[in-house]
Amino acid sequence: MTRLVVDGDPRVDQPEQRTPSGLSLSRRAHSAAGDGSPWQRWVLWLLAAGSGAGTALAIVVAVRDGLTWDRFVRGDLGLSTVLAVTLPLLGAAIAHREPGNRLAWVFAVTGASRMVFTLSMAWAGHIYLTGPGTGPGGPVASWLSLWSRLPAPALAPLLLLWFPAGRLPPGRRWRLAQLPVPVALAAVVVVAALSWPYRGPRTLPEAPTPPGVAPAIVVVAFGVVVAAVLTGLSLGLASLISRLRHAAPVVRQQVKWQLFGGGAGVVLNLAGDVVAPRAGLNLAGTLVTVAAMLLAIERYQLWNVDRLINRTLVYGTLTVLAAATYAGCAAGLGLVTAGLAHGRSVAVACATLAAAALVSPARRTVQARIDRWFDRRRFDAVDRVRAYADRLGTTPAVPGELRDVLAAALRDPELVLLFTLDDGRLVDATGTPAEVPARAATRTERRLTSRAGRDGAGRGPAAGELGALICRRFPPHEAGLLDAVLAAAAMPLEYARLQAELRVQLAAVQASRGRIVAAADAERRRIERNLHDGAQQRLVALAVRLRSEQRRHGDAFDPATGPLLDLAVDELRAAVEDLRALAAGLLPAALASEGLGPALRELVDRAPAGVRLLGLPEHRHGPSLEATGWFVVAEGLANAAKHASGAWVTVTASCHESCLTVAVVDGGVGGAVIGPDTAGPPAAGAGSGLRGLADRVEGCGGRLVVTSPPGGPTELRAELPCG
Questions:
Q1: DSSP line for 642-676
Q2: Each residue's pLDDT tens digit, 292-332
Q3: 611-615 and 649-655 strand pairing
Q4: Which of 243, 324, 365, 667 is most enclosed, with most CB atoms within 10 A?
């Protein structure tokens, strides 16, 4: 459980429960205002039952007297009936969940007063309007109908000031804000006391106002009630706005529900009065207001109010814009086509098309404006992701950039983004294999899926799955933030997964090329050992045997045989040297025994004059890497001897920041290029030697660069990873 500050007071917030439908439901066992007593709950339930029974009796009496739906909806009876039934029930429900919440009594008393007004008005009308003019309880009913409607508005400011926990916000100013309530109640008492002598037919609406001081005081008291109620409601609204800005998140959401219900009630009542007086919108507005207060106090679906307000404002604004567009176009085109046949139909059709064409672009604009004003947190996060998505059309994506954008949008620097390959493996943005980290209590995992499926056909064991997102757990007031951000990042996520898969494939190709080079070097060393231990030893043994036999039987041989034996021994020695060169692949023995530095020094010493050695590596590297470096220098010296004879040549080899760089520069005429890696005739100046050398360098994970402008100089540089 976490501690919250509600209206300035610390409290322990109960954990959220989950209903079977997946809707969040947070209950409070008791309010901080007190535990209350069981008898209070029973009294409130009995009061709710009595209010419902009295209201039902009033409806029965009114229906027998000819009540119609139009009179019920448009008159005071309908509104009072709704309030008299719903408010006591709401008070009893609040007392059942929160016995110490004083709002329960406010709702109950308010509803009961409306029940008294409803029953007294129906009975007084039955006696004096449709009846004989006399009857039991008629004078009392007429007297009650005169002032019993006033306690409800007099207590209304408390519904705002005490909302939602049944107590005032902290601060002396809010204590003074309650002052209009006792003033209004005192004025109600004055009205009730001074109107008693005028009970009976004199209280009917058509009866003239009786003369005298008492009726004048009653009129003034009515004015005092109205002024006090308006003042109290203004102060209550100010308290709600203050809590909306400064209270804890839970209280802010409750205030939003209260304001949304009140605003919706006002709009529906205005629509019922102006647009459709007989449609029951006034009653619907009252029910919406009561339902919103119930949801706010009970904390049911508390965090859905933001989405509800957002959609209400968006579609309400669109409705007004579409209606205004339709009305304006219909009126304007009606004037233009007034003299034409079917002109009115043409105007209506054109106005309808204009309104329909306005809806789609207007919705995007209105949605953006509403999000910017009423949900800035989500707007900024989604806007950041969409800006990154727009940049992808012109700027290449950097590995890990999408993860940084999502981390910034969601305000989670520890966010982890992994992608799923076709075989089900998880990799990061660079293509490195990874696993879902162990989740802490504050972390959550979200599996990302593709809308279209993998390759549009859904192939592979992980078809349709993009990857996994591990991020922080979001508080209830940010419940929809992650979904909105992921919806905006749908295309960048697809693109990033394809990039990660491409990097995995590229790494696999590079690894396979490296294995091919290493296998070729190993095979060359095996052949060298076989030749050294096999054919080379046989030829050496044969040459030694011939020389031994020549010395032993030299006198017995014919004079012409000696030179032939000398020639045979020399040829055998030459064959042995050829076998050694073939087995070594032109690699010197110093390369394997001492390393790249001594081998390059030996290669430069055997080169023609004019070759300078400017640097050598200080450390040993892998056999394939050293062999590749040696081949680069050998190829560069061979090309310099062939195409730049007599020009100066420099050789450099150095290791810096895990990169072995080998370069050969000559002062020739230039024009050298690396041949294409596809079949076809080579370009001018391109040879197969540089192409094969480039393949070998790339097989080790490096790159070969040839810089040879016309007129020279020519640089052959290989950059090999040695970390």
A1: HHSTTS-EEEEEEE-SSEEEEEEEE-S----EEPP
A2: 888 877 776 666 667 777 777 777 888 888 888 888 888 88
A3: parallel
A4: 243
Cβ atoms of residues 629 and 660 within 8 Å: yes
**What's the CA gap between 190 and 225, in Å, rounded?**
10
Single-letter amino acid, residue 660: L
pTM of the model: 0.55
**What tokens appear for 547 in the block?**
């020389």
Quick check: helix, strand or coil at residue 208?
coil
β partners of residue 471: 444
Let me know: does 187 contact 228? Beta carbons within 8 Å.
yes
CB 669 within 8 A of CB 710: yes
Q: How far apart are CA 190 and CA 100, in angstroms?
A: 31
Select from 117, 115, 116, 125 the least CA-distant residue to 61: 125
- 414-463, pLDDT tens digit by residue? 899 999 888 788 888 888 888 888 766 678 888 888 765 444 444 444 45
What's the rounded Cα separation, in Å, for the pair 287 and 97?
Answer: 21
Given CA atoms 208, 214, 218, 219 in this order, what sign does their dihedral have?
Answer: positive
Cβ(248)–Cβ(5) under 8 Å?
Answer: yes
Alpha-carbon span 129 to 62, nearest angstrom: 11
Question: Quick one: how far is CA 191 from the chain centroid?
Answer: 59
Cα–Cα distance between 120 and 179 in angstroms, integer?
A: 29
Tens-place pLDDT, residues 363-408: 778 777 777 766 778 888 888 898 888 888 788 888 888 999 999 9
Q: Which two tokens stand for residue 395?
A: 């700027």
Q: Using an 8 Å Cβ cutoff, are 497 and 323 in contact?
A: no
The owner of tokens 């909806």 is: 73
Q: For residues 491-514, b (16+ Cβ closer than 10 Å) or e, as one string?
A: ebbeebbebbbebbeeeeeeeebb
DSSP one-letter code for 713: -
The rounded distance, in Å, linking the Cα atoms of 506 and 399 is 14
| C-alpha span between 614 and 627 (Å, rounded) | 19
**What is the spatial distance between Cα 322 and Cα 328, in angstroms, rounded to a whole number?**
10
Distance CA 636, CA 632 (A): 6
CA atoms within 13 A on the CB side of 238: 11
Report the DSSP beta bridge partners of residue 615.
652
Distance from first CA to last CA of the chain, Å, rounded?
Answer: 51
Contacts of 156 (CB under 8 A, 6+ apart): 110, 229, 232, 233, 236
Indicate the burial class of 368 (C-beta count within 10 angstroms; 0-12, 13-18, 19 or more): middle
- Find the helix or strand (DSSP H, E) in which 715 lies: strand 714-721
Give me the torsion for CA of 623, 626, 628, 632, rounded to 10°. -160
Residue 279 has a CB neighbour count (10 Å cut-off) of 13
Contact 179, 228 (CB under 8 A): no
The amino acid sitting at 33 is A
The amino acid sitting at 324 is: A
CB 62 within 8 A of CB 125: yes
What is the rounded CA–CA span in Å between residue 701 and residue 717?
14
DSSP letters for 251-314: HHHHHHHHHHHHHHHHHHHHHHHHT-TTTTHHHHHHHHHHHHHHHHHHTBTGGGHHHHHHHHHH
